[in-house]
């Protein structure tokens, strides 16, 4: 490529455009690396090769998620800093080729209904994501073609940018894995009012599930969902996709708190005029001793302060009830929801959320950290 002022100026513009997109994308995913991990697991469960899924690789999802976030951030930093230009341009090209192919498959098959390329900060349809990648492919090609224009050998300077990018994002991800995201882009963020109640309306909630075998999607009324979930074979085949509530106006559409009979109590409990402490457990089997201790502390705290407390979990009733008895928590009121819906509220397992007048007052991974007005 000829080294002209115009060609180099276009190279600078292309690097800044793509670099800023990659920085934004990596930052909003780095804020919530567990959300990215869940999305990687969605891909592992939904995509198949010769009829075989990749669910066996779920334990690697966390490592892959953090690696992807760090790689995106690294590319963004190197492009804007004009460091390691050949390496950065080829890494960019490989990543964009992977993203473009992946999102095209998503758009045509809808195996995963949201790629999570901008985390929970910006939601795009699969086709919007694909065309976004096509738009980025244009400056990417130019960056690769002009990668050798006005190159300077500045290994020490470039090395500092390289180490900084990896270290900064890795530390950021580790912090957000061990805490709730420093910036919450999810519906259940502190300060959000989750329901606007209208006594004249009769709210009904629905959930949509997809068959892992056929790809078929079906919508179920939440009140009847427990009839299906009680069948282990059904639970293995069908995966939660989305949810909605017809009325009232709910910021987390379709959120449900089902009892043993499948009746939804969300519209009774979430408004919580006297306050409600919600303990969330999205995977009962993953609870460790420290987590169990935190739940016991929450129950003691609620009892001492005359506060209503409920457990919200995705566990099956036949697993939950013996566990509660074993832990001496048989008097703890509990409700059921899909694991993905619970993970949207809290990444921690367990997590603690305090609601009052349908407003998320505070939430965290320890009840002692909550700012509770009672």
Outline the structure in words:
With about 375 residues, the protein is α+β, with helices and mostly antiparallel strands. It has 12 helices and 10 strands. The protein has a 5-stranded mixed β-sheet with strand order 8-7-6-9-10, sandwiched between helices. A 3-stranded antiparallel β-sheet has the order 3-2-4. Strand 2 and strand 3 form a beta hairpin. The mean pLDDT is about 85.
Q: Quote the average pLDDT.
A: 87
- Tell me the radius of gyration: 23 Å
C-alpha end-to-end distance: 69 Å
Major β-sheet profile: 5 strands, mixed
Number of helices: 12
Portion of residues in beta strands equals 5-15%
Which structural class best describes the helix and strand composition?
alpha+beta
**Shape by Cα distribution:** elongated
Q: Helical percent range?
A: 40-55%
> How many DSSP-defined strands?
10
What's the arrangement of strands in the largest beta sheet? Answer: 8-7-6-9-10
Low-confidence runs of at least 5 consecutive residues: none
> Secondary-structure element sequence?
HHHHHHEEEHHEEHEHEHEHEE
């Amino acid at each position: 490529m000829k080294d002209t002022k115009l060609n180099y100026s276009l190279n600078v513009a292309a690097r800044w455009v793509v670099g800023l997109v990659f920085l934004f994308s990596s930052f909003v995913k780095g804020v919530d690396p567990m959300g990215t991990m869940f999305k990687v697991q969605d891909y592992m469960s939904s995509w198949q090769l010769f009829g075989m899924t990749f669910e066996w690789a779920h334990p690697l999802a966390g490592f892959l998620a953090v690696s992807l976030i760090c790689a995106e951030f690294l590319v963004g930093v190197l492009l804007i800093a004009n460091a390691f230009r050949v390496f950065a341009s080829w890494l960019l090209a490989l990543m964009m080729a992977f993203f473009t192919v992946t999102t095209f498959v998503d758009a045509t098959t809808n195996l995963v209904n949201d790629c999570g390329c901008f985390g929970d900060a910006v939601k795009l349809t699969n086709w919007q994501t694909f065309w976004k990648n096509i738009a980025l492919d244009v400056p990417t090609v130019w960056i690769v073609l002009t990668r050798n224009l006005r190159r300077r050998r500045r290994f020490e300077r470039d090395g500092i940018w390289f180490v900084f990018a990896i270290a900064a994002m890795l530390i950021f991800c580790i912090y957000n894995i061990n805490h709730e995201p420093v910036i919450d882009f999810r519906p259940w963020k502190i300060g959000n009012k989750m329901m606007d109640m209208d006594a004249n309306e009769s709210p009904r909630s629905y959930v949509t599930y997809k068959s892992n075998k056929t790809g078929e999607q079906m919508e179920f009324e939440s009140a009847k969902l427990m009839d299906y979930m009680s069948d282990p074979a059904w639970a293995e085949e069908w995966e939660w996709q989305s949810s909605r509530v017809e009325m009232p106006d709910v910021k987390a559409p379709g959120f449900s708190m089902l009892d043993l009979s499948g009746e939804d109590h969300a519209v009774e409990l979430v408004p919580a005029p006297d306050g409600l402490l919600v303990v969330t457990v999205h995977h009962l089997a993953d609870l460790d001793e420290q987590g169990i201790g935190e739940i016991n502390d929450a129950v003691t705290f609620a009892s001492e302060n005359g506060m209503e407390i409920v457990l919200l979990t995705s566990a099956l009733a036949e697993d939950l009830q013996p566990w509660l008895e074993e832990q001496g928590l048989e008097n703890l009121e509990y409700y059921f929801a899909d694991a993905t819906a619970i993970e949207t509220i809290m990444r921690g397992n367990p997590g603690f959320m305090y609601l009052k007048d349908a407003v998320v007052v505070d939430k965290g991974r320890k009840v002692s950290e909550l700012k509770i007005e009672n």
